[in-house]
Write a structure and sequence with these properties.
Layout: H1 12-32, E1 39-45, H2 51-64, E2 69-73, H3 81-84, H4 90-97, H5 101-109, E3 118-126, E4 131-140, E5 145-149, E6 164-169, H6 172-182, H7 188-208, H8 211-214, E7 217-220, E8 228-232
Parallel strand pairs: 1-5, 1-6, 2-5, 6-7
Antiparallel strand pairs: 3-4, 7-8
Helix pairs in contact: 1-2, 4-7
């Protein structure tokens, strides 16, 4: 799994460029969220798209406005290494075996529906050591805005539990470039995984669940200092978001 880092971690200018996007997302949440249920926002994109930093900055934005939040990162739900690599096709392994999706659904997402509030402590895998030694507490109420971030989020196993889907779009070449910029000492074998594992898995995922059909908002995050919305759609009453197929352009494409 590639390291999750982003060069704008302390860059206030980059945060400021995101503010209009965050305000638009929050406006959409206000229109859709029921008062008696938590609301799940999914932030998805290919490897290196900037999901984690975008999610963290959005959470800071919400907290500053007195919203209750709970972050869920798919990276915290890795399966053990022996299972993740049990197969010859590493792209398929990455797509199908990397994460314990059932645990995310069973312990966190599914209970959100019938329960107004609950707290749970989970012991999670430290994928660096391959040991279950990280304890994390998750807490939810009917006022919580849940931020779920990670790869492969809009797959059929997770999609029904996500109320608002955001896809961060970058070219595949940018994914590899960011890997190099994050770590100039990255080995050739590790970089080769992008061509043989990470990006082939993403191609498979995007072919099965195209953002144009699944996402409520698509954001071009190629320039992480100046992202912009390329597609957004209104909520259609009584129709699941993952069934809506047509986008209404909201913002012009930046030159």
């Amino acid at each position: 799994m590639p390291e999750r880092k982003q060069p704008d971690s302390v860059n206030p200018a980059a945060r400021n460029k995101r503010l209009p996007i965050f305000e638009r997302i929050l406006d959409d949440i206000k229109k859709r969220k029921r008062t008696d249920k938590a609301f799940v926002v999914g932030i998805n994109g290919i490897d290196g798209a900037g999901k984690t930093k975008f999610a963290e900055s959005f959470e800071e934005f919400l907290i500053a406005r007195n919203y209750k939040t709970q972050m869920i990162s798919i990276d915290d739900f890795h399966n053990p290494q022996a299972y993740r690599y049990a197969g010859d096709n590493q792209a398929d392994n990455y797509y199908h075996k990397s994460f314990n999706i059932d645990l995310v659904v069973e312990k966190l997402l599914l209970p959100l529906r019938p329960k107004n509030a609950f707290t749970i402590k989970l012991t999670q895998l430290d994928w660096h050591t391959d040991k279950y030694e990280i304890e994390k507490i998750y807490s939810f109420s009917q006022k919580t805005i849940v931020i779920l971030e990670g790869v492969f989020l809009f797959r059929k196993e997770l999609s029904p539990y996500i109320d608002y889907k955001i896809f961060l779009e970058i070219p595949f070449e940018e994914s590899k470039r960011r890997a190099l910029s994050r770590d100039a000492t990255i080995s050739k074998s590790e970089l080769r995984k992008y061509d043989e594992k990470y990006l082939p898995a993403q191609r498979k995922y995007l072919a099965e669940f195209p953002p144009s059909e699944t996402a409520d908002m698509i954001i071009d995050n190629t320039n992480w200092e100046s992202p912009y919305i390329t597609s957004a759609r209104p909520k259609l009453v009584n129709k699941p978001t993952d069934k809506i197929k047509h986008f209404i352009p909201k913002y012009p494409v930046a030159p």
